[in-house]
């Protein structure tokens, strides 16, 4: 089934929860103009004004031209919509064309996770070309991984993994049933089904948890130092 421009507009509007009047108002156009696009637009057909495409991208962070060409909704700026709306769009096949970076969620200590990434709001993004296999980034709080990772650094994480994918001695972001969200070196004991969370700071002790208590695992694939500035130097993990 071909995804028409009008289909894309309807899907996004439904996810946002706006009426045509409300959405047209956000775009600064009259309802009739917007309504016409939802009803009649076809692949490759241009809006009466190219400004519509640019305005839509500026307001909602979605590139309509790429979306029609790729036949899926292309999100180019995830800071324009709430993360809850973006999750709804992802569930119907939307693609985030950048790497969203979240506020302090990852912790290099053992504080509880106060906000699940699915309901957080990214504060900026990086070009996907920087890390083609990355899924998201998070700022770090805590000192258990010093001197490898400092508070205020942010880490780039790959796709979600299972315990079978763990390579002992590598750094991962781990979420547990206890709502702990932590960055540690992992060692997996397959026989005992135990996962050791190992800090690099000697003042911290390692922690063993049952594999069954792990909710998610993401490999940390790169690190940006706080003092080196966002979008600048990186250090592979």
How are the secondary structure elements laid out?
Layout lengths: L4 H12 L3 H8 L3 H10 L10 H10 L3 H7 L3 E2 L7 H9 L3 E2 L1 E10 L14 E6 L8 E6 L12 E8 L9 E6 L4 E9 L4 E5 L8 E4 L3 E11 L10 E2 L1
Parallel strand pairs: 1-2, 3-5
Antiparallel strand pairs: 3-4, 5-6, 6-11, 7-8, 7-11, 8-9, 9-10, 11-12
Keywords: DNA-binding, Transcription, Transcription regulation
Protein name: Peptidase S24-like
InterPro entries: Cro/C1-type_HTH, Lambda_DNA-bd_dom_sf, LexA-like, LexA/Signal_pep-like_sf, Peptidase_S24_S26A/B/C
Main sheet specs: 10 strands, mixed
Number of strand elements: 12
The first-level CATH class name of the largest domain: Mainly Beta
> How many separate domains?
2
CATH architecture of the largest domain: Ribbon
Radius of gyration: 21 Å
What is the helix tally?
Answer: 6
Query: β content, as a range?
Result: 25-35%
- Indicate the overall shape: elongated
CATH fold description of the largest domain: Umud Fragment, subunit A
Low-confidence stretches: 109-115, 230-237
Keywords: DNA-binding, Transcription, Transcription regulation
Pfam family, one: Peptidase_S24
Organism: Chitinophaga rupis
GO molecular function: DNA binding
């Amino acid at each position: 089934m071909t995804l028409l421009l009008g289909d894309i507009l309807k899907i996004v509007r439904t996810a946002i929860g706006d009426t045509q009047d409300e959405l047209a108002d956000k775009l600064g156009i009259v309802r009739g103009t917007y309504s016409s696009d939802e009803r009649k637009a076809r692949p490759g057909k241009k809006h009466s004004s190219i400004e519509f495409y640019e305005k839509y991208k500026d307001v909602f962070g979605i590139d309509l031209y790429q979306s029609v060409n790729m036949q899926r909704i292309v999100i180019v700026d995830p800071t324009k919509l709430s993360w809850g709306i973006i999750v709804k769009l992802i569930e119907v096949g939307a693609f985030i064309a950048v790497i969203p970076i979240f506020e302090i969620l990852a912790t290099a200590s053992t504080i509880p996770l106060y906000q699940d990434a699915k309901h957080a709001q990214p504060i900026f993004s990086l070009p996907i070309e920087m890390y083609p296999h990355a899924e998201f980034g998070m700022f770090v709080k805590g000192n258990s991984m010093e001197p490898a990772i400092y508070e205020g650094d942010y880490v780039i994480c790959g796709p979600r993994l299972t315990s079978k994918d763990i390579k002992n001695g590598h750094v991962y972001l781990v979420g547990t049933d206890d709502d702990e969200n932590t960055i540690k070196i992992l060692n997996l004991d397959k026989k005992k089904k135990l996962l050791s969370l190992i800090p690099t700071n000697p003042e911290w002790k390692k922690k063993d948890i049952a594999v069954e208590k792990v909710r998610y695992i993401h490999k940390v694939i790169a690190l940006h130092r706080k003092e080196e500035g966002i979008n600048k130097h990186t250090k592979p993990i």
